[in-house]
Structures
1.
Amino acid sequence: MASDTTPAAPVPAPRTDRSPWNWLLILPIVLPLLTPIFNFDSPRLWGFPAFYWLQFAFILVGVACTSLVYQMTRKRSSAVASDE
C-alpha cells in the first residue's frame, strides 16, 4: 500500500477582531433608546422641535462612531507588508 503523503491543512490563525474599540458601537444603538434625553419640544433649531433635529444628530453620532471604530481596528496594509 502506498502511504498518503498529502500535507496537513494549515491551522487557521486565531480571530483578531476582538478590539475594545468595538464597544463604541453600542453608543449609536443605546443613545436613541434613551427617550427622556430628547423628549421635549424646545429648543427649536430652524423651527424644528428638539426631537427631530436630535434624531438627525443621532445619525451623525452613528456615522462618527462607525468611522472611528473602522479606522482604529482596520489592519494597516503598510504595517503588514513591512512585517513580511
Note: The radius of gyration is 24 Å.
2.
Amino acid sequence: MPEGNNGAGGLAYAARAMTGTGPIVLVIDLEVPPVRAYAAFTEHFGDWWPAATHSLSRDPATSCRLVARCGGAVSELAPDGTRHDWGEVLAVEPGRRIRFSWHPGRERDTAQWVEVEFAAAAGGSRVTLTHGGWQALGGIAPLLRQEYLPGWQHVFGERYAAFARRDR
C-alpha cells in the first residue's frame, strides 16, 4: 500500500482507494513521549479540536470534550446549552490507546469507530489514528469516508499534532 508523507515528523497516511470503505489510517511522529501525546489528545481534546469548523454548531464558542474512561463521552456543548454526543469511549489504556464510537450528527446505530494508539518511537512517539467501521453507514459510506479523510488530516495531522508539540 502506498503512503504519503509531508516531511520529517509530518503526517503519513495510508492511501487507500477513495471509493472504498477500508479504514482511514493516519500516522504522526511527535518529539514528545507517548504519555504526553496521549494526555494532549485526551485531557486537552477541547483545546485543539477546531469547534468553529468541525462541530455541529459551527460556533467558536462551542466546547468539545473527550472523557477518557470506558463509557465516557466524546461530545460538544453548543453556546445555547445543547449537547451533541459524537460517540462513546469503548476502550482505554492510559498512555497507550483509546478507542471510541463515532457518530456526530447521526444516530448511534450508524456509528463507526476511531482508535488512537500512542507508541514509543525514536525521538518521542508515533501516534496512529484509525477510523473504521464505515459499513455501518450503508450506501453513503464511501462518500462520507472520502469527506472524512481531509478532515482528519486537518484535525489530527495539523491541529492535534501542533498542539501536542507545544511546550506546556
Note: DSSP finds three helices and nine strands in the chain.
3.
Amino acid sequence: MNNQFWFDAVGWIGAAALLVAYAMVSSRKLEGHSAVFQLLNVSGSLLLAANSIFYGSYPSTFVNLIWAAIAIFAIATRKRVSPR
C-alpha cells in the first residue's frame, strides 16, 4: 500500500479521536479536565497534524500542533495541581 493510504488512515483515526473526545464531554461521559479527554485530544491532533503535513496543509498543521500543545499543558498542570 502507498503512503497516501496510510496518511489518509492516520487522518481519519485522528479525526475520530477528536470527535469522540468532544462527544464524550458534550454528553457528560467525560470531564473536560480528565486525562482520557486530554489524551484523546493529544493523539487526535497529532495524527491530524501528520496527515496535514503530508498534504501540505500548513494552517491545519499549525492548529493541530497548538491543539496538542494545549492538551499536553493541561495534562502537565493537572498532575501538578492537587485534587480538591
Note: The chain has a mean pLDDT of 93.
4.
Amino acid sequence: MPLLRRRPVPPEVKAVPVPPGERRVAWALTATGEPLVATDAALLLPVGVRLEWHRVERAGWRRPTLTVLEVAGVEGAGARHVVELADEGDLPEVVRTRVTASVAWSSHARLSPRGGVRIVGRRRAGLEVLEWQLVYDPGTDVTDPLVRAQAEEMLEGARRTIG
C-alpha cells in the first residue's frame, strides 16, 4: 500500500502572505508560475486579489481553466477571474467546496411587474450571523422602487425566519 504524500509547497506559494488566523488549505500555480492559494476564509488570486468565499457567486473548472465569478447585484454581472492552471492539485475541488459551504440559505422569488431576485444568506469566516445578499435576475429593473421594495420585504422576511 503506497504512502500518501503531500506535494511539496513551492517557494512562490510559501511567499503568498496568509492573514493571521487563516490557514492555507490548497494551492496551485498558473501557467505563468503565479500562485493561487485557498485559505479557510478566502481565495488569494495572483496580483493580490483576495476573494472571501461569501463574495464568490460561482466557480467553474474545466481543465486547465479555473473561472471564478464575484457576487454582484445582478446575477452573472460580477467581476470574472479566469486563470489557466499548470498544476491544479486539489485547488478546484477546494474552491467548489468552500463556495458551496458558504451558502447557508437561498431562495428565488418572482417580482412584480416582472423579474426576479435570489435572496442568499452566506456564511462568513469567523462570524456567527449570516451575510444577506440580493441578487437580481438579468433584465430585472433594479431602479424600480416597487421592485426594490418587494425584494427588501422578502429579505426582511428571510432574516426574521432564518436569522
Note: The radius of gyration is 18 Å.
